[in-house]
Design brief:
Elements lengths: L17 E10 L2 E11 L4 E5 L6 H8 L7 E6 L10 H4 E4 L11 H11 L4 H10 L15 H13 L5 E5 L7 H16 L3 E6 L2 H4 L5 E6 L2 E7 H5 L3 E6 L2 H10 L4 E3 L7 E4 L4 H11 L3 E7 L3 H9 L12 H5 L1
Helix pairs in contact: 3-4, 4-5, 9-10
This protein binds adenosine-5'-triphosphate.
The site of adenosine-5'-triphosphate has 13 residues, from β2 and α1.
């Protein structure tokens, strides 16, 4: 089943473990989250994306029962967080990478958490190994780098082996190797059937990690769907020394084709992802081909188009003129 959806027609994912429905949060007169609806499917990594101040953390905090919605619901397994009988075993969350007692070692931090939920110490060591900080486990968390704190937060989230994971900006502070590690790690967890929701204000960072995306701006949903849907219909880019002859040949073969000046001289866009077919048509027409590749929608550009369009322009961004008043 396709997860195709627009801002107006939210995803209805069968068996969704996370369901946000008409969710709003006001702080005084300020609407931080505005009638937001989306669902998150098991076995998939969903990116929760939006610029700074868009309302991502507030939404995640409502899912975790830390902020009370003004209107609507944010449910996990069909329940408010407070209704979950085994919360740590249901949902693991890492909201901030800084909330560790600085004087406590990483291992002790996890042990305290484990003890209060009757989770054996063996699980703590297993997790420290799994997130790649066994050597740092006996050092005080106060001396951890941002990346190490992220890994410790991830271990804490996984302590109860929950089937839902909610991670706020998990790649913050990770170096490129750490980001690659995180990507593989989350992919492995998703392959086990876990439901994973990760927030980020940087699409480029999560683009290769997520299967689905929910994009918000100013507290409102602006787009959601699978990454394939975000990329749009497949197209081919072919570069030739005779664009006119190639376009004619492609059109005669029943393919939509036209010049694509944005891609430079001699570029032709073809409405198919089937590169073999395009190459065969060019060969049959005797037209030289200098380049042939799949043309994808630039997601970063799409993200900026969506989040910086006039109606979605970031309300938190004051002009210097306004700031000076
Ligand atoms: N307790 C609060 N009281 C008043 N305003 C708040 C409160 N919490 C959040 N806000 C405001 O709500 C808006 C959304 O904040 P939120 O932290 O949810 O955004 P975000 O998308 O997570 O941003 P970032 O990417 O910077 O973390 C911001 O303008 C923020 O200042």
């Amino acid at each position: 089943m396709s997860l195709a959806a627009t801002a107006e027609t939210p995803i209805h994912a069968p068996g969704a473990a996370i369901v946000v429905d008409s969710l709003s949060k006001k702080f005084g007169d300020f609407v931080a989250v505005d009638d937001l609806s989306f669902q998150v499917s098991p076995g998939r990594i969903t990116g929760f994306l939006g610029p700074n101040g868009a309302g991502k953390t507030t939404t995640l905090r409502m899912l975790l029962g830390l902020v009370r919605p003004t209107h609507g619901t944010a449910r996990i397994d069909g329940m408010d967080y407070a209704e979950l009988s085994r919360p740590l075993q249901t949902v693991g969350a890492a909201l901030e990478a800084t909330n560790f007692h600085p004087g406590r070692t990483g291992r002790d931090h996890l042990r305290v958490l484990a003890a209060t939920h009757r989770i054996p110490d063996a699980r703590v060591d297993q997790l420290l190994e799994l997130v790649g900080i066994p050597a740092a486990a006996n050092k005080r968390a106060g001396g951890y780098s941002m990346g190490m704190r992220q890994r410790l937060g991830l271990a804490a989230a996984l302590l109860g082996d929950p089937h839902v994971l909610i991670l706020d900006e998990p790649s913050n502070g990770l170096d490129p190797e750490g980001i690659r590690w995180l990507r593989g790690f989350l992919r492995h967890l998703a392959s086990e059937g876990k439901t994973i929701l990760i927030s980020s204000h940087q699409l480029s960072e999560v683009e290769q990690t997520v299967d689905d995306a929910v994009i918000i701006a100013n507290g409102r949903l602006v787009r959601q769907g699978t990454m394939d849907e975000m990329h749009g219909d497949p197209a081919a880019l072919v570069r030739t020394s005779d664009a006119r002859a190639l376009v004619t040949a492609l059109q005669q073969a029943g393919l939509a084709a036209g010049d694509e000046p944005a891609q430079g001289p001699g570029a032709v866009r073809v409405g198919t992802g089937d590169l073999t077919r395009v190459g065969d048509v060019a060969l049959a027409a005797g037209v030289p081909v200098h380049e042939l590749r799949v043309l994808r929608t630039d997601l970063e550009r799409l993200y900026f188009q969506l989040t910086e369009s006039p109606e979605n322009l970031n309300r938190n961004r004051e002009t210097t003129e306004e700031a000076g008043r």
